[in-house]
């Protein structure tokens, strides 16, 4: 196993354990239990819960926004290429119609087939 891979795996497990420990610490304290909260204490806990929900919601939306912008950028590039080819096609059609106009017989004379 490469040393860099071992370091990555070690960091992954360290981050996992640190997150679990820090996330479970509030369970040990009675102050964080909403059943025992009253009045202002209950409002503070509610505010903390709303703030954490907002952090997770914001992080999720920012993640999706980055991917959506990548998709939009590729679609804009496709649209530009499509318009460019259409304009080039119209320009060649205009050139063809101009050539056909020059080949048209003068007025009053019929075209021979």
From TrEMBL:
It is a multi-pass membrane protein. Residues 80-113 are annotated as: Disordered. The keyword ATP-binding does not apply. It holds the Pfam family Zip. GO terms for molecular function: metal ion transmembrane transporter activity. The chain crosses the membrane at residues 12-32, 44-64. This is Zinc transporter ZIP2.
């Amino acid at each position: 196993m490469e040393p860099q891979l071992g370091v990555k795996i070690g960091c992954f497990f360290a981050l996992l354990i640190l997150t679990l420990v820090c996330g479970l610490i509030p369970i040990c304290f009675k102050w964080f239990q909403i059943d025992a909260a009253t009045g202002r204490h209950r409002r503070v806990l509610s505010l903390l819960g709303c703030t954490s929900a907002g952090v997770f919601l914001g992080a999720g939306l920012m993640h999706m926004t980055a991917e959506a912008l990548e998709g939009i950028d590729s679609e804009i590039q496709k649209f530009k290429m499509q318009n460019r080819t259409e304009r080039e096609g119209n320009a060649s059609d205009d050139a063809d119609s101009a050539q056909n106009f020059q080949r048209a017989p003068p007025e009053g004379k019929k075209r021979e087939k």
